[in-house]
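User: Predict the structure for this protein chain, please.
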Amino acid sequence: MLGLQLHWREGSQAGLGAGGRDLLRLREESGLKRYRGVSGLYHFAVLFPSRRELARAVARLFTLRYRTYPTDHIMTKSSYLDDPEGNGIELYAESPEDGWFGMENGEFVSRRADGSLSDGREAMDLDALFGLLNPDEQLDLPVPPETRIGHVHLHVGDLRQAVDFYHGVIGFDVMGEGRAMRAAFVSAGGYHHHLGLNTWQGEGAPAAPADAAGLRYFTVDLPERTALERVVERVRQAGLPVEQSELGFVVRDPSNNALVLADRSRE
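Assistant: Here is the predicted structure, written as structure tokens:
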């Protein structure tokens, strides 16, 4: 339904993506449950290289009658859905020419290109989106090779602790933190966000139990070995446990969400 390619499948595991590196890995386990009111995955976000490719993905979901929620965030165009087990997914494309979303006077603000205010969660103009497609558009094409994971958004139990960890220890820049919104966004290189953090499952939400379905880990790629070693050393200096695996260095945030720190240059 999403158009990802099946890269490999071995027993109870599979890797999917756009033909290069795996973007998504799935693992089947028996006896798992879906819990509410716990930390974990809010959604992972698939970033398409253009509005046209997003239009193809959304049109495919419409054709298959799979429930999705197209939303105009002004600086991005998105559609939200859950997979069959309740894992949240965002499909989006950048649209900075339409406006901006960021911090003003300590609160999140969205402005259109003409300067007018938006709540940043408008209904998407589907006529304009689908107008990017030809009448005989082939909707079942795989996602283009430029498709990637644009960001990951997490439920956490304590927003301040989460920001301190991802900014002070891992090293992301804080792009915005709004107490009224109960959310924060961090990134590298000035991007609007590579990680979203929220307490929408409740302040003090506990870590997901071991038998919870959902996120097992997400990967943060460092550009080369030296950068990876610097981050791992900061984690150790903070007194946090680090586990080395074949994937990289596994670390857990204050809400027990696991991230893998990896050296992308080795691939």
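The longest helix spans residues 51-63.
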